[in-house]
Amino acid sequence: MKLDPKDRAIVEATQAGLPLVPQPFAVVAESLGMPEEELLERLASLKARGIVRRIGAAPNHYRLGMTANGMSVWDVDDAVVDTLGEQIGALPFVTHCYRRPRALPVWPYNLFAMVHGADRAEVLSKRDRIKDLLSDACRANDILFSTRILKKTGMRLRKKKG
Amino acid sequence: MTEQLSDLDRQLINRLQDDLPLVSHPFTALGESLGLSEQEVVDRIRRLRDDGLLTRFGPFFDAEALGGAFCLCAMTVPEDRFEAVLTKVNAHAEVAHNYQRDHSLNMWFVLATENRGDIMRVAKDIEHDTGLEVLLFPKKREFFVGFRVNA
């Protein structure tokens, strides 16, 4: 999707966050030289187009005690993986759920579900609930715990040259 | 729970995982429901952010809708070369997240690029820099998740 120059300027100005003031949109609008009303209309349009998912904050899982995270991976029958994927995504403890290609022979898994918990035992018991749900449709599974965060910067649009 | 949080902070963290209204004073309604002025809401969010309990406040973008591309990648990195390989991989600005995991595929990272075609180019660059194979796991389908952290 192509953004017009004003929308792109809005993304660049807000992707690191909004100023924490009572009227954050007014501050951003002023920095962009546009009326606040136009900024709000453009943000509403970006939201209607699915480019902005929401305005809010992201909690730090680790600081809130969710220190264990396991990437559970599953080899699920292709005929039913999408139906079952919907059900697994709907589980309250699954933070991300994707169907991805296998990389045979080293990687037979086509369904990835990220599970967070206070410790590994909690993550493993949640993994067992996924296993129950998949039942016979799952041929093999594994869980990969993260042992270290090596980098976490998130995506940034680069400033256009000129 | 590793943090001692007030009930008010918990409520605020939970509410901030919803969507704030696109209005001139976005904190007013939230403040009223919590018994806080809008300035008190702002100050409390700033403190939670400065303390690292919130990672960021603002709009959350769907980077793919912006025209960006993402791809989960994995490598098997020999333990004795791990730090040297890590330095080379993380040197690429397109590496957005990188986690060490306990598996023979022990380095898992996400490439984020503005254009779809750049994913393969960066993956090839990393293979060239490290001499190791990069497996690509592009998302074929994303399943909706309703996950929230209950603070």
From TrEMBL, chain A:
Query: What's the superkingdom here?
Result: Bacteria
- Report domain Siroheme decarboxylase AsnC-like ligand binding positions: 63-151
A Pfam family that this protein carries is AsnC_trans_reg2
Q: Per its record, what are the GO molecular function terms?
A: lyase activity
Keyword vocabulary terms for this entry: Lyase
Which EC number(s) does the record attach to this protein?
A: 4.1.1.111
Q: What class of enzyme is it?
A: lyase
Its pathway, per UniProt, is:
Porphyrin-containing compound metabolism
Catalytic activity annotated for this protein? Answer: siroheme + 2 H(+) = 12,18-didecarboxysiroheme + 2 CO2
Q: Siroheme decarboxylase NirL-like HTH domain location, by residue? A: 7-53
InterPro entries, per the entry: AsnC_trans_reg2, HTH-Siroheme_Decarb, NirdL-like_HTH
- Family per record: Belongs to the Ahb/Nir family.
Q: What's this protein's name?
A: siroheme decarboxylase
Automatic annotation (TrEMBL), chain B:
Which pathway is this protein engaged in? Porphyrin-containing compound metabolism
The domain of life for this entry's organism is Bacteria
Question: What UniProt keywords apply to this chain's record, in alphabetical order?
Answer: Lyase
* Catalysed reactions, as listed in the record: siroheme + 2 H(+) = 12,18-didecarboxysiroheme + 2 CO2
Using the record's annotation, list all stretches that form the Siroheme decarboxylase AsnC-like ligand binding domain: 71-143
EC identifiers of the protein: 4.1.1.111
Q: Which SUPFAM superfamilies match?
A: Winged helix' DNA-binding domain
Q: Which family does it belong to?
A: Belongs to the Ahb/Nir family.
| Name this polypeptide is given | Siroheme decarboxylase NirG subunit
Native organism: Roseibium aggregatum
